[in-house]
């Protein structure tokens, strides 16, 4: 039986972080129960589809899933355990934010099979957390992290961000050095992007955001790489680091362009070369499920050329790169022929390297990754 990933979206947050354009809502406590009821209905609709697969990874993301009260989260977890075919030792992650976790929730997660916690943290300095709209302090993060360990979580990811307004390289160093001392198994380290329709986008347009320069941003990227690899973290994806054996199974599904099913508001699925996505308005989502209407808004078949393009630019995010032989075998194509010009150009420019069957970005290629990814779009 084929293995896939399952994504479950919980779209609620305590308040909106200033940089966030995710599909998440604040101040919606009254929607917790109807949303979960809707989610369970969607699971029922997708029951037959789900029964065709073994789930190798589950990611409950958001939003802030840890904001859901215990009784609501328990309904979702019970449904999963009672109805889905789960792979033995699957990776089962929940996203959380400090300030929304407690012992009771963590114990429920662990008891229900969740074996990986992903914690949004971002920066070590309390003033910085406030400036980017986070609801917690550094101490709350440390308390939650230690509590998760105490309860028994042996696989924790911490999300960090650099290139933040007014952030200095020394502050970024302080963040990295202190996180390393806590010894999480996985660290994501993303550069801030100013996304449309966020508080930061408005401030940026008004000239009120002082961001580090491009050069400083790159220095921060390499500082993370330096500190983390010196502390035994493997740099396995452009923005992700882990201890040996702790690569995120779920994220690798996306980077390898494999199949997954998404459940929840705005969730995407990719099955049988067809991409679908759900409604993005929470009220519409709840209402449609209540009335037994469709909640999928987009359905498009991926042509083989789109799929190959995606495999290229997603796969190149992995530091190990793309296994050309594997791609050729799986899709009965000849990557070196299809992309002959691009591969030659990027190798000549020092952006890419080929070693045996692997094609991967060089450090210069990582710095200019968007340019390389664009090159692999097939007209
Ligand atoms: S906690 Fe996460 S999803 Fe929620 S607003 Fe902040 S960044 Fe967005």
Automatic annotation (TrEMBL):
One GO biological process term: porphyrin-containing compound biosynthetic process
Q: In terms of domain of life, where is this protein from?
A: Bacteria
- What Gene3D superfamilies does the entry give? Aldolase class I
- Molecular function via GO: 4 iron, 4 sulfur cluster binding; coproporphyrinogen oxidase activity; metal ion binding
Q: Which GO terms describe its cellular component?
A: cytoplasm
**What is one Pfam family matched by this protein?**
HemN_C
Location of this chain's protein in the cell: Cytoplasm
Keyword field contains Iron: yes
The protein's UniProt keywords, in alphabetical order, are: 4Fe-4S, Chaperone, Cytoplasm, Heme, Iron, Iron-sulfur, Metal-binding, S-adenosyl-L-methionine
The Radical SAM core domain covers which part of the protein?
1-230
What broad class describes the main subcellular location of this protein? cytoplasm
Nucleotide-binding as a keyword? no
Q: Which family does it belong to?
A: Belongs to the anaerobic coproporphyrinogen-III oxidase family. HemW subfamily.
The role this protein plays is: Probably acts as a heme chaperone, transferring heme to an unknown acceptor. Binds one molecule of heme per monomer, possibly covalently. Binds 1 [4Fe-4S] cluster. The cluster is coordinated with 3 cysteines and an exchangeable S-adenosyl-L-methionine.
What name does UniProt use for this protein?
A: Heme chaperone HemW
